[in-house]
Amino acid sequence: MDGDRGEYRESPPAVGLGRVVACVWTRRIGGADRVFRVVPDGCVDVIWDGRDLYVAGPDTGPHLAVNPPGTVLAGMRFRPGAAPPVLGVLAHALRDSRVPLEELWPRDETG
After folding, report:
1. What is the DSSP string of 40-71?
2. How many CB atoms lie within 10 A of CB 98?
């Protein structure tokens, strides 16, 4: 598996989410691509890495991602302009960053 390049797959969003979500995707990290370049696409994604849920982008340049081989990432890519109303933050505040979702949506400790 050391020479393995991993795998990336995109699927359409669930029915009813297509106006907001462009796609859902998974990426399995192989031994040969534990460090890979994420090419900027101007979109905002919510990503689960097996431990944390975070918001990525929009990126204006490439981002180097480092994950151990065998990691499976799962993401949801927003359509352009759809993330700010859902996340409650302007897109420029997320530009070129990776932000834990909990920083945008703090847990409600009252309930």
Report:
1. P-S--EEEE-SS-EEEE---SS-EEEE--TT-
2. 16
Copy the structure tokens of residue 57. Answer: 């982008």
pLDDT tens digit string along 59-89? 999 988 888 888 999 999 999 999 999 999 9
How does DSSP assign 75-94, residue by residue? EEEEPTTTHHHHHTS-GGGT
Q: Tell me the sheet residues that pair with 89.
A: none
pTM for this predicted structure: 0.86
| H or E stretch at 104 | helix 101-104
Q: How far is CA 48 from the centre of its chain?
A: 7
